[in-house]
Amino acid sequence: GEDVEQSLFLSVREGDSSVINCTYTDSSSTYLYWYKQEPGAGLQLLTYIFSNMDMKQDQRLTVLLNKKDKHLSLRIADTQTGDSAIYFCADFYNKLIFGAGTRLAVHP
Amino acid sequence: KAGVTQTPRYLIKTRGQQVTLSCSPISGHRSVSWYQQTPGQGLQFLFEYFSETQRNKGNFPGRFSGRQFSNSRSEMNVSTLELGDSALYLCASSPGRLNTEAFFGQGTRLTVV
Q: Which of A30, A88, A94 lies closest to B43 in CB terms?
């Protein structure tokens, strides 16, 4: 069945770049998404990429997609303390399939 | 433009009771999907409604049901509550089916005691 996997934790220093990785199994995926969840809140759509694209940039966010390896990454440039949250990768065909989430901790 | 509104934000129910959660999508959006989030199972798809019809369903027991009204507002119902139903229930709103952008509400935190 469909599966999305992410590493569970990432710790970075403020001002550095963060890279969160994700792998997925469903070759029928049409779109791949990154969502952010802060404590006690719902999911905030950060960005998404169409499955026939390799890269998408949106301000401090860069998404890279390697379709051959079914690997997706989210790079956050100049990471700030406000970026501390859980980041979910999701793929979409008929529904969103989420990874377990990567907890990003930003320290001074 | 108002976002996705879920009510109530918090609920405490007793085992065996039933509960109804509500979701008002973004104005003009016609697709509403529901997800359950728990620490153990993560985010899991419950069902999707579009034009008042259930279009897709996840692997949940029949105790979980939903509906959508002509104004696109959706409700989900859980009958005969179990302790394991304690979760954050999230609703996602999209302009149409198979659409690129799914926007989530703040969720309803259900606690079953």
A: A88
